[in-house]
Amino acid sequence: MEKQAITSRLTQSEIKKLKSLHTKKGRNREKLFIAEGIRLLEEALKFERKPQKVYFAPFLITPRAKKLTDSFRKLSVPIRAVTAKAINQISDAETSQGVLGLFDIPDYSDKRLFDKSRYILLLDNISDPGNAGTLIRSAVAFGFDTVMVLFNSVDPYNPKVVRSTAGAIFGLKVRLVDLADIINEKKNMKIPLIAADSGGSKMETGIKKIGPIKNFIIAIGSERTGLSSEIRKVADLSLKIDHLEAVESLNAAVAGSIIMREIYYQKIIKVK
Amino acid sequence: MEKQAITSRLTQSEIKKLKSLHTKKGRNREKLFIAEGIRLLEEALKFERKPQKVYFAPFLITPRAKKLTDSFRKLSVPIRAVTAKAINQISDAETSQGVLGLFDIPDYSDKRLFDKSRYILLLDNISDPGNAGTLIRSAVAFGFDTVMVLFNSVDPYNPKVVRSTAGAIFGLKVRLVDLADIINEKKNMKIPLIAADSGGSKMETGIKKIGPIKNFIIAIGSERTGLSSEIRKVADLSLKIDHLEAVESLNAAVAGSIIMREIYYQKIIKVK
Predict the structure, then answer these.
(1) pLDDT classification of A272: cutoffs 50, 70, 90
(2) Cβ separation of A247 and B271 shorter than 8 Å?
(3) A193-212 as b/e, with b when 16 or more CB fall inside 10 Å?
(4) pTM of the entire structure?
(5) Are B124 and B219 in contact (CB under 8 A)?
(6) Chain A residue closest to B254 (CA)?
(7) Which residues of chain A are within 8 Å of residue B141 when distances are taken between CB atoms?
(8) Quick one: which of A184, A201, A244, B168 has the most CB atoms within 10 Å?
(9) Residue B4 has pLDDT above 80, yes or no
């Protein structure tokens, strides 16, 4: 009897709403996304990103997840205990850890495109969720404060992207952007754009030439088609990573991460 | 009528056998794996790896795939034209390009563990197929000749791994290995082992100290648990990649690729 007393039933319409967040359409309508599992929620806590609500199944969770829900409770986040069946219904994971958070999708549409952004990673035609998430993770690791995602790429709030960021999605500004807006605002604001491009100069020497710089954009394109021609046209510098010709190209997340690391290593980025 | 004349029917037992290659058990029994799609097969051709057989659906393929089958035909590879339905049945891809190759899984069990291998990437507990494939791709890009995969990792002939290598799996020796064998043979042969480990020395300076070296092993562990303690114990050098503490770790494929690139960049590897 006690088991039933502490969990509450989700209505069919609540379950339907939560499940709709696995689709882009649903997320766009609700302006919400789901982050599942202990690790992602611990990172949200670390980066001080408060969920709108946390759902957990008391009979699925470990002591570590219990501690997590207690921390959110202290921050006055509404916590909802539900049945294991309900959590599995709304979970995207193969095996649910019994806990997930509902987060607002930040809306920056009233802010200028480059408002407060200094070091920007631009994703152009990155369709693989694992690659997008990995790039966001590396961006946080190497001191970038913003990821701009062109509409030709995977939605950054896709559950697989969120998982691949390992929580780094809570560590920087993520903004969906239009190609034309980037091109215009780049010109207006005179922000340098650095393109990862196999036709560019050698990365190590190219970065050395950058010198003191207030802000910049690094653009990473897809493995198959490379960067959009419009982006390539406005690039101030193109960088290539030396490798043997035995492979045509590196994985996009690897290439982007190698360039971001080199920029971090050469101290182009001023870390607070 | 003509349509039927040029394709032949696969029997149920043929389809069953081919489909079984999507599982590890099936691959182990048949000693075969499947590589699907134009890009992978073009790479096989480039690396001179002859498939045992090629299957294609004449009414699905593009001129580029047609050219590919012609090239294999010239090499006396048996080519089998089958129906679109049959190719879709044996395909693992979401949308089949209508062509796939059946390849032997190379067996090195009669060879010494480090036979002819000079630059070895060792995968320890790498369970994500995308990460394993990406690491193999980077290994070929940066001059490694062998990937050794511990049994605790994903099977390198898993279709998702093969796809993530973008064909690089045909560009080096891939060998499944036992942890105890690695430890023993490393001692016998006195091969240095370099571990990617967040507790190690800074990568850039650590690699500088390596100097001229005939052969070595780079070991990459999982993001969650790191390297096996047995591997860490026998490491001659541990390397870490500097990054902000905002993230706990980098993605395993990114970390491994960054270290391999640095080794390549610092010319520790003698490329032919």
Answers:
(1) low
(2) no
(3) bbbbbeebeebeebbeebee
(4) 0.95
(5) yes
(6) A254
(7) 243-244, 246-247, 250
(8) B168
(9) no
